[in-house]
């Protein structure tokens, strides 16, 4: 409701600026005023406010100068127009929902949720843990990597993400479900010295990425 009213207010502000500019021809100005009054009446209706009765030019009818029968007929016409607008909006929304459902049914997608609890691997230095989906028959990865930076202390580098290491592999379509085999692969890359046993300070290096280990689990 808030978003709908906000969009209507933005439209009214824009149309008000056009009316006050004084650059519109008379026919366009008349049509724009009708759009403004229709938008206001529609907004009042969805907010359960009173319906304002207007004449053909969009001007508010004065009850002191208009007969009761004329007010009643004008109220009927305005109410009918607002109801037609509501039905039109409802129909458009239903069509959008139907098209969205049809599109989803035609191209279904699935997702895989992963929650990393711990990395039980004695590395001795900082590491990068990369998780991805792999097709062993085609010998290729079918997803991007989910990367977690692991410290030498056995905890995530970003300590704020402790117990909150989650990822979702999305957009797995029918083509992926038809694969004979899909594996979940975890790669560990050590980040540090060239050799773990390198204790010579003159040869000491840091920040080098070296493959350390890999593990896989067949999902199907």
Describe the fold and architecture.
The chain is an alpha+beta fold. It contains four helices and seven strands, in the order H-H-H-E-E-E-E-E-H-E-E. The chain folds into two domains: 1-105, Substrate Binding Domain Of Dnak, Chain:A, Domain 2 (Up-down Bundle); 110-218, no CATH class. Helix content is 38%, strand content 25%. Strand 2 and strand 3 (140-141) form a beta hairpin. Residues 72-99 form a coiled coil. Residues 2-205 form the Dedicator of cytokinesis N-terminal domain. It comes from Glareola pratincola. This is DOCK1 protein.
Report Rg: 33 Å
Unreliable spans are none
Largest sheet: 5 strands, antiparallel
Backbone structural class = alpha+beta
Shape: elongated
Quick synopsis:
With 220 residues, the protein is of the alpha+beta class. It has 4 helices and 7 strands. Strands 2, 3, 4, 6 and 7 form a 5-stranded antiparallel beta sheet that branches.
Task: Give the SSE map.
Elements: H1 2-21, H2 26-46, H3 68-106, E1 109-116, E2 126-135, E3 140-141, E4 146-150, E5 165-173, H4 174-177, E6 183-192, E7 208-218
Antiparallel strand pairs: 1-5, 2-3, 2-4, 2-6, 6-7
GO cellular component, one term: cytoplasm
Protein name: DOCK1 protein
InterPro entries: DOCK, DOCK_N, DOCK_N_sub1
Please supply descriptive tags for the structure shown above:
220 residues, 38% helix, 7 strands, single chain, alpha+beta, two-stranded antiparallel sheet, 5-stranded antiparallel sheet, Substrate Binding Domain Of Dnak, Chain:A, Domain 2, 2 domains, elongated, 4 helices
């Amino acid at each position: 409701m808030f978003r709908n009213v906000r969009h209507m207010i933005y439209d009214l502000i824009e149309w008000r600026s056009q009316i006050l500019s004084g650059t519109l021809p008379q026919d366009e100005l008349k049509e724009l005023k009708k759009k403004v009054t229709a938008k206001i009446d529609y907004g009042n209706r969805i907010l359960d406010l009173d319906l304002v009765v207007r004449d053909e030019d969009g001007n508010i009818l004065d009850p002191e100068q208009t007969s009761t029968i004329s007010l009643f007929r004008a109220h009927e016409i305005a109410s009918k127009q607002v109801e037609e607008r509501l039905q039109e909006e409802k129909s458009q929304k239903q069509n959008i929902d139907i098209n969205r459902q049809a599109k989803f049914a035609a191209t279904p997608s699935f997702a895989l949720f992963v929650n990393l609890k711990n990395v039980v691997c004695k590395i001795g230095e900082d590491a990068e843990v990369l998780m991805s989906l792999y097709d062993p028959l085609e010998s290729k990865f079918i997803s991007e990597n989910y990367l977690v930076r692991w410290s030498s202390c056995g905890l995530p580098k970003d300590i704020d993400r402790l117990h909150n290491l989650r990822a979702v592999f999305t957009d797995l379509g029918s083509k992926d479900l038809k694969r004979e085999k899909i594996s979940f692969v975890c790669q560990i890359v050590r980040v540090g010295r060239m050799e773990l046993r390198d204790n010579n300070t003159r040869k000491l290096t840091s920040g080098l990425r070296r493959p350390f280990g890999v593990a896989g689990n067949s999902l199907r």
